[in-house]
Design a protein that fits this description.
12 helices, TIM Barrel, 9-stranded mixed β-sheet, 8-stranded parallel beta barrel, about 20% strand, 17 strands, alpha/beta, about 425 residues
């Protein structure tokens, strides 16, 4: 079971919204740091263990810098994410670059920064070699196809657009080696928001098997495996977080059996978790504009799916707290909606809540990953601000809200 915690008292939240216009995202620095340390400690046995934080989850330099200070690298999948990392001083093999349908200019930037380049397709070997040359260290993203099942978010591996197939994998390493690569890594990403620790353990087993196979068939030693991300968080109160200590113990046993006994150690182990690191420690704070009764009861917010699109995109659940009414019984049933001209602009459907009134402040939980990051400007909605709740309880602006001038800045009205 998970407890939905808010790092501010009712009074502190109400005072905060007086001076900070809603909606906005708020991140809890102290909780993020504590969680990052716990993650690193859980796998401290693993050779050269590192988590490459998935920048796409929360692409704010202040958040990424905090995690760099905690020993994390970055997982980047676009030019903008590479540049963001560069601007805060992250470079070299502290960056894992994994993209798909990759433009050449992104390979150029990744090579310039000395990133670990992780290729998504066997045909990308020639594109990379012809555009920037084959780097010393190369990695491939492995798609096991029918060998594994995915989940609703990332899809069935057989139908996924990502990765090198089982039949292609060994040939990919041989070709990269023939073009000058001398160091090799192996990556996969076969699930998203997974709470079953056994799935992660079986992913380790799968990669260890491929490490053995690549060595036997190509005489190529893999320097490290990247387990990907995919570790979920308990969005619902009746869900429990993944037991990372259990996962770690099971992985260690597999490592000893499949890697140490086969004389393939040391084999580095890394992850690229994003959601599991920051997800539970972000909050979308919004004000109730309207409470209406039609064929259903509706609570209308000043936030919309432009601020958090996961419920509309995936049907995802996010817990909602009505500030100051946490201890009141949830006797009323509402659809909690935004103001976009789309009927799926809903944060919750048929959600039991205390009685909600105009002016109430609602906190939508677990928005620290894939929340602000997935925002957009449909209907001319402006993207919100982001704030960091620092360890001394002060609140720091880490991204200002967009203005109407920002929205129109790329349009040319000169001839209309």
């Amino acid at each position: 079971m998970s407890t939905k915690y808010i790092p501010l008292t009712t009074e502190e939240i109400l005072n905060l919204v007086k001076d900070h216009p809603t909606p906005f995202h708020l991140y809890d620095e102290m909780a993020i740091r504590k969680n990052a340390r716990s993650f690193m400690e859980a796998f401290s046995w693993a050779p050269n263990f590192k988590n490459y934080f998935a920048v796409k989850a929360c692409p704010n330099p202040h958040i990424v810098k905090i995690l760099q200070e905690e020993g994390f690298g970055v997982d980047c999948s676009s030019l903008a994410e590479l540049v963001l990392s560069e601007k805060i001083g992250i470079k070299g093999e502290e960056i894992m670059f994994t993209s798909n349908d990759t433009p050449v200019e992104e390979f150029v930037k990744a090579k310039e920064l000395g990133s670990v380049i992780n290729l998504d397709d066997i045909t990308h070997i020639d594109v990379l070699h012809q555009s920037v040359g084959m780097p010393e260290l190369i990695s491939f993203r492995y798609n096991p196809g029918p060998g594994r099942t995915g989940n609703a978010i990332i899809g069935n591996p057989v139908e996924a657009k990502y990765g090198v197939t089982t039949d292609q994998l060994v040939d990919a390493y041989k070709k990269a080696q023939s073009l000058g690569a001398t160091r090799f890594a192996l990556h996969t990403m076969v699930a998203s928001n997974e709470l079953n620790g056994e799935y992660i353990v079986e992913t380790a087993r799968m990669l260890f098997e491929q490490v053995q196979r690549i060595y036997k068939e190509a005489n190529i030693r893999i320097e490290f495996i990247n387990m990907g991300g995919g570790i979920g968080i308990p969005y619902k109160e009746d869900e429990s977080a993944m037991d990372l200590q259990y996962v770690s113990r099971k992985m260690k046993a597999l490592y000893d059996e499949m890697i140490v006994k086969e004389n393939l150690d040391p084999l580095g182990i890394v992850f690229e978790s994003g959601r599991a690191i920051t997800g539970p420690y972000g909050y979308l704070i919004s004000k109730v504009l309207h409470v209406t009764s039609k064929y259903k009861e509706y609570v209308g917010l000043d936030a919309s799916m432009a601020n958090l699109m996961r419920p509309a995109l995936y049907g995802s659940y996010h817990h909602i707290t009505v500030v100051g009414k946490e201890n009141q019984p949830r006797l009323y049933t509402y659809d909690v909606t935004g103001s976009l001209c789309e009927n799926n602009d809903k944060f919750a459907i048929d959600r039991p809540l205390p009685k909600v009134e105009v002016g109430d402040i609602l906190v939508i939980h677990d928005t620290g990953a894939h929340g602000y990051a997935m925002g957009f400007n449909y209907n001319g909605k402006l993207r919100s601000s982001e704030y960091l709740l620092q360890e001394d309880k002060s609140v720091k602006l880490i991204r200002r809200a967009e203005t109407i001038d920002d929205y129109f800045a790329t349009l040319d009205f000169s001839e209309v």
